[in-house]
Design a protein that fits this description.
Strand order of the largest sheet: 3-4-13-5-12-11-6-10-8-9-7
Radius of gyration: 27 Å
Number of domains: 2
GO cellular component, one term: small-subunit processome
Structural class: alpha/beta
CATH architecture of the largest domain: 3-Layer(aba) Sandwich
Shape: elongated
CATH superfamily of the largest domain: P-loop containing nucleotide triphosphate hydrolases
Helix content: 25-40%
Protein name: U3 small nucleolar RNA-associated protein 25 homolog
Number of strands: 20
GO biological process, one term: maturation of SSU-rRNA from tricistronic rRNA transcript (SSU-rRNA, 5.8S rRNA, LSU-rRNA)
Subunit structure: Interacts with CAPN3; the interaction is required for CAPN3 translocation to the nucleolus.
InterPro entries: P-loop_NTPase, UTP25, UTP25_C, UTP25_NTPase-like
CATH topology of the largest domain: Rossmann fold
Strand content: 5-15%
Number of helices: 27
Length: about 725
């Protein structure tokens, strides 16, 4: 479901930087609450297009600039399904018309589709008009710990949100570099702690965790052990029955409200236990925040008329507190199921979930839709399980014993969305229909499976990061007397916790963590180095030649690599004896450049990319296998989304090291599918520079990487299959 937020009728066309301060301070001066209609359903224009083969999964996020990089020349077989990069056409992307679960009650004649939001339960889930249930077992943290002020003051949520930063501390964080320190934990391994305010302050992992000492809001204390039971084994200590070792150390960091980057998420092994851990943290935060508001509602109701009290500042400028970015609808489905499980104390005390049936229909999947007899690697099956539509957003509101799915964004506590789903609502400069005010008071940002966004469109992630925690352009009916000073001071980004999970280390992901995370509590990054590398999983006997190219700086690497390839590498393969040469190209930009060069030079080649039509893929594979085409240009994103075995490879060229290290061994091992090949004639050539250190280490291991970066000579490795 492509869930949209309710938008104010007074919406600005300008960029936030231009108007937000003046408009905002004007609102502050008036201190008026201007109630807005929260029940307007926004219309989302969507163009009905035929759902293609699974190529559309890949094509949905292709970068426009790369497709036009070489003068706009396109191959007839490589036409993208949609031109996603153009901002004013972003709403037409990838079959959103049916997948978004658009309301079929709309008038089809004008082509406008109303996007469904639940407006029935507005008052029931309103934070402003509800109060804490006196008899509720899910009493607020305030009430529960009312007799123990010390216990309340030690609650990490209270400590983090109640801390009042000073101007000089904000200035310090804005200008001074962070100081770092290292620590080694039993399960997470090597950690880097960095902070501007807290110098050289690290903490050790708790050896044992008592769930009662985690300040979990009820009912999480009782439900978490049952929900998490599936991941626990008999080796868990009786004193720590609730967490796996990985979960315990991750939650230990999360619960201190530090930013966290964990680059070892694996869909096959630890993906689900990580998902459960961050869902527990997010839900715990929302329940505490809402309980505080409801408790203060009751106190304000009971106070004497005319009493002016400034003690009830307990919320942000807009209601959404948690933003969860995930790649596919299946991920959102699992998250909501975890939330429901954590809120249901037992079978007799089921929580009321609004629009549950609709949600299952639009985010679930039909097992029969999966083509039979498709054999893919286990990691592929784990990543692409269930509904893999990548254009969605949905608001979730939680109040005591109830959950509301499809809540309008300004009435939501949690927003679950894909990067593309966020991009199409945030929009770009010049668009009349755009909105990002609902991101103004995000307190926890969770970006899961960040590596997949490298295969979709990383620009969407960067665009999102630029629009989180900006001052809203409109008041959206907020009661300024209840807004925390940190939000009024525009300091929200210094309190936001960012949790970033990825399957790999990558400079672009590192950059988001280093440049877009400003948490005053500091950052924690897991920085383990690979010891062996994926080359050890190559099972065919093959000489690997790593050819180093020298680039003056990082921006010049792209051109240097191209010139190095056409001048030094390609001439060695032009001879007909070097037939059956597959060139693996991670970047679509480089693929287009190489394809155009090969055409210009009239080389005998074929090509496959993520936009190639199915018939053209079949032709290309057949031509390459039979030797009718000497070269095959092959993109990484095609391999990521398809994982076809390419038969007939005798010579391999990695134009650049693969993003996923295991793709290296996978591509090399495709050679064993060549039935009549002679092992002695097979070759593998890899281009790399000093800027590829992380990718190189993931392929050959840290020790070899150090040697290769010190030496300026080409490196020859021979892998026997047991190396």
């Amino acid at each position: 479901q492509s869930e949209n937020s309710d938008k104010s009728s007074a919406e600005s066309d300008s960029e936030p930087e231009v108007e937000q301060v003046s408009v905002y301070h004007k609102l502050l001066d008036t201190l008026k609450t201007s109630p807005e209609s929260e029940s307007e359903e926004e219309e989302d224009e969507s163009e009905s297009e035929e759902a293609g083969e699974s190529e559309t999964e890949m094509g949905s996020e292709g970068s426009q600039e790369t497709r036009e990089a070489e003068g706009g020349e396109e191959d007839k077989d490589d036409v993208p399904e949609q031109e996603e990069g153009a901002a004013d056409r972003a709403e037409q992307t990838l079959g959103q018309e049916q997948a978004d679960g658009a309301d079929t009650s709309c008038d089809p004649s004008d082509g406008v589709i109303e996007e469904f939001t639940d407006v029935k339960h507005e008052s029931e889930f309103s934070l402003e008009t509800n109060f804490m249930e006196e008899e509720s077992g899910a009493c607020s943290a305030d009430k529960r710990d009312g007799n123990s002020p010390q216990a309340l003051s030690e609650d990490p949520f209270k400590q983090h949100m109640d801390k009042e930063l000073e101007e000089k501390e904000i200035e310090k964080m804005s200008t001074l570099p962070k100081t770092s320190s290292q620590s080694k934990w039993p399960r997470l391994g090597q950690l880097t702690f960095s902070s501007t305010l807290e110098k050289h302050k690290t903490f050790k992992a708790d050896k044992e965790v008592d769930v009662k000492q985690l300040y979990l809001h009820k009912p999480l204390e009782s439900t978490w052990p049952k929900v998490n039971k599936q991941f626990l084994s008999s080796v868990n200590k009786p004193s720590d029955p609730c967490f796996t070792l990985l979960q315990r150390e991750l939650f230990c960091i999360m619960n201190t409200y530090r930013d966290l980057f964990y680059p070892e998420r694996n869909a096959l092994t630890n993906g689900e236990e990580i998902r459960h851990a961050y869902c527990l943290h997010a839900l715990n935060h929302v329940l505490k925040a809402n309980a505080q508001v409801l408790s203060n509602n009751a106190k304000r109701r009971d106070q004497k008329p005319g009493t002016d009290n400034d003690d009830y500042r307990d919320q942000g400028l807009t209601r959404p507190k948690v933003l969860m970015i995930v790649p596919f609808r299946e991920c959102a489905l699992r998250i909501v199921h975890i939330f429901i499980s954590l809120l249901e104390v037992n079978d007799k005390r089921k929580i009321d979930v609004s629009n549950k049936k609709r949600f299952k229909g639009e985010f679930g999947s039909d097992p029969e839709e999966k083509p039979p007899n498709l054999k893919r690697p286990e990691d592929y099956e784990a990543v692409f399980a269930g509904n893999i539509d990548d254009h969605f957003r949905i608001g979730v509101a939680i109040l005591q014993k109830s959950m509301r799915l499809y809540a309008p964004f300004y009435s939501s506590d949690i927003i679950i969305a894909s990067p593309l789903g966020m991009r199409t609502i945030i929009g770009t400069e010049g668009e009349k229909k755009r909105d990002f005010d609902f991101l103004s008071s995000i307190e926890i940002l969770i970006i899961d499976q960040a590596d997949i966004y490298l295969m979709q469109n990383w620009e969407h992630v960067l665009h999102l990061m630029k629009h989180v925690n900006l001052l809203p352009l409109d008041s959206h009916g907020v009661d300024f007397s209840r807004v925390r000073m940190l939000n009024l001071n525009n300091w929200s980004k210094y309190y936001r916790q960012t949790l970033l999970f990825s399957a790999l280390q990558d400079p672009q992901i590192n950059s988001v963590f280093n440049k877009h995370c400003f948490n005053y509590m500091g950052q924690v990054a897991v920085r383990n180095v690979p010891l062996s590398g994926s080359i050890s999983h190559v099972v065919v006997q093959l000489p690997h030649v790593f050819r180093r190219l020298e680039a003056e700086n990082l921006p010049s690497v792209i051109d240097t690599r191209f010139q190095f390839f056409i001048n030094k590498v390609l001439p060695e393969y032009r001879d007909a004896i070097m037939s059956h040469t597959l060139i693996y190209v991670p970047s679509y930009f480089d693929y287009v450049r190489l394809r155009n060069y090969f055409k210009k030079e009239e080389l005998n080649f074929t090509h496959i990319c993520e936009y190639t039509k199915k018939a053209a893929v079949c032709r290309a594979r057949r031509f390459f296998l039979k030797g009718e085409k000497q070269f095959l240009l092959f993109t990484e994103r095609f391999h990521f989304y398809k994982r076809y075995t390419i038969k007939g490879i005798r010579n391999l060229i990695f134009y650049e090291l693969p993003t996923y290290s295991h793709f290296y061994s996978e591509i090399c091992n495709m050679m064993k599918a060549t039935g009549n090949g002679v092992d002695a004639t097979w070759t593998c050539t890899v281009l790399y520079s000093k800027y590829d250190a992380q990718k190189l280490a993931a392929v050959v291991g840290i020790d070899r990487t150090a040697q290769m970066l010190q030496s300026k000579k080409n490196v020859h490795l021979f892998v026997t299959g047991e190396n």
